[in-house]
Amino acid sequence: MTILEDPPTPTVPDGRAQNDSGGALAFIAMAGLLIALVATVVVIGLIGLLRDESDGAGGVAASVPSTLGLTLSEFSIDGQLSAVPGDVSLLVTNTGSQQHNLVVRETGAETPMLDTGENATLALGALEAGSYELFCSVAGHAESGMIAPLEISASATAGGEAAALDSHDHNSPDFDADKMDQIMIDSMAAFPATTEGKGNQILEPEILADGTKKFTLEASIIDWEVSPGQIVEAWAYNGQVPGPQIIVDVGDNVQVELTNNTPMGTDIHWHGIQTPNDMDGVSPFTQDPIRAGETFTYEFVAQNQAIGMYHAHLHSQISVVNGMFAAFRIGERPYPRGMTISGVAIPDDFEPDVELPMVLNDAGTIGLTLNGKSFPGTEPLVLDEGDWVAADYYNEGLTAHPMHQHQFPQLVYAKDGIPLDYPYWADTINVAPGERYSVLFQAVDPGVWVWHCHILTHVERDTGMFGMVTAVIVNAAATTDDDVEEEPATTEDASAEG
Ligand SMILES: [Cu+2]
User: What is the Å distance from ligand 1's center to 347 Cα?
Assistant: First the structure.
């Protein structure tokens, strides 16, 4: 990930026709005349530029080659986004953790798909003054923010929008540490922020005459507020991201009626749930696609305890990453009751105080999120000192996320819903796409404790903190007798400290 030095400073164009060997006097005279002529034109041109900073209506615009350094990451395009008219090349580096490319909409030029750390040079040839649109063509990435204007204008300077890139270069004249500190601090102070919409709501079934639990789902495209003011087109079940939680008991007869109001065919795969083959939701093999406007009912017996998910299978690279995913649980979680793990005994009658699904995503219109929200829109977990939490991680994204908890070790007792014979404690748990990890932790210390993905570009960018971060806010237990009525710290008190 190299950072470009400043692009070439604009210089006046060379006179083209001066390459003669020039022996004869007459020729020297001619050349002198020519130089004078070119100089005059250049001076006139410069005056024109000074008078009219826009496009230089005359047409004698400076024409110099520029190489612009750009970086691709989840989900932004940063770097030098302005240049003077002339030959423009882009040195594009993928500093993210997923594949990206860069396309110039107006010219159609595009880099190959770049893996993490790869770069490519995209020669665009001569660009006239104007605004060009750069974007990543991976499905959903432009919608998530990987879109940026490239401004070609005679008044462009080497600086311009280059601040983002220069911010990493301590030697750059544009490096402004105080400003960078302030941007980060301001972005963190915005937490927790309220947003419209909440996912993971528990879906109540209709109980049919024979005891079957019938759940009704509608898939549709909705406006979803990922973080304050950032509203995206989500593909959602029942208008929420993640979709509603379905919880049934072992042995239940389950029906799920899905009406597809998205524009494309769909189906539902019950990930980690055992079903008859024709209920596996893999069209066209196990069923016909549920076309736009159609309804299909899945029916199966909930055979085994499971901590699973449900999501679309057909067009999953669009619909799932854009929001069509949710948690599905059968029976009780397999708590390690009566076990002693690294010296910590879990009581025979253990019950958690709080249960929490933690659904991870990183792609599509939803982007880097916890439970469908990006910091500061992520919901803090507010606890009382001593509370036990049962959290289930579900990764519905495209890359792994090492989920790190400050202060409280997490007891991993089930992987993909399957109870572990040897549960273990860890402060960081790497959750790959499709995986589920079920953990317990106890909030033994008051304070605001950060809980986040430890891929640092999933939580911070030059514009501040974002993405896969939330906090565990632990209110101190009242130190006086039980009959003291209301002394616990409020959420605001606690979050103000952070
Ligand atoms: Cu991550």
Answer: 33
269 and 171 in one domain?
no
The structure tokens listed for 332 are: 């009780």
Question: Is residue 23 situated within a structural domain?
Answer: no
In whole angstroms, what is the distance from residue 390 CA to residue 452 CA? 17
Residue 57 domain flag: no
Which of 98-107, 199-208, 296-305, 377-386 is predicted with the least confidence, judged by mean pLDDT?
98-107
Does residue 161 lie in a domain region? yes
329 alpha carbon – ligand 1 mean position (Å): 24
Q: 431 CA distance to ligand 1 centroid (A)? A: 9
3-state DSSP call for residue 366?
coil
**Of 175, 193, 219, which one is at a domain's C-terminal end?**
175
Cα 108 versus chain centre, distance: 26
Task: Give the DSSP H or E segment for 151.
Answer: strand 147-152
Residues within 5 Å of ion ligand 1, judged at the Cβ atom: 401, 453, 455, 458
Q: Is residue 109 part of a domain?
A: yes
CATH of the domain at 281: 2.60.40.420
Residue 153's pLDDT band, with cuts at 50, 70 and 90, is confident
Q: What is the C-alpha end-to-end distance of the chain, expressed in Å? A: 32
177 alpha carbon, distance to own chain's centre: 25
pLDDT category, 336, cuts 50, 70, 90? very high
Q: Are residues 321 and 414 in the same domain?
A: yes
Q: Is the CB of residue 341 less than 8 Å from the CB of residue 328?
A: no
If one counts the domains in the chain, the total is: 2
- The three-class DSSP label of residue 346 is coil
How many A from CA of 299 to the centre of ligand 1?
A: 35
Residues 6+ apart with CB under 8 A from 404: 427, 428, 451, 452, 453, 454
Query: Same domain for 225 and 129?
Result: no
Which of 111-120, 140-149, 159-168 has the least mean pLDDT?
Answer: 159-168
Q: Are residues 400 and 469 in the same domain?
A: yes
Q: Are residues 213 and 166 in the same domain?
A: no
Task: Report the separation in Å between the CA atom of 432 and the middle of ligand 1, taken as the mean of its atom positions.
Answer: 10
Q: Are residues 73 and 220 in the same domain?
A: no
Residue 297 CA to residue 278 CA, distance in Å, equals 11
Residue 487 confidence (pLDDT): 44
Find the 206 Cα to ligand 1 centroid distance in Å: 37
What local confidence, expressed as pLDDT, does residue 31 receive?
54
Residue 280 pLDDT greater than 70, yes or no: yes
Comparing CA positions, the residue from 390, 471, 403 lying closest to residue 432 is 403
**419 shares a domain with 333:** yes
Domain region containing 80? 66-175
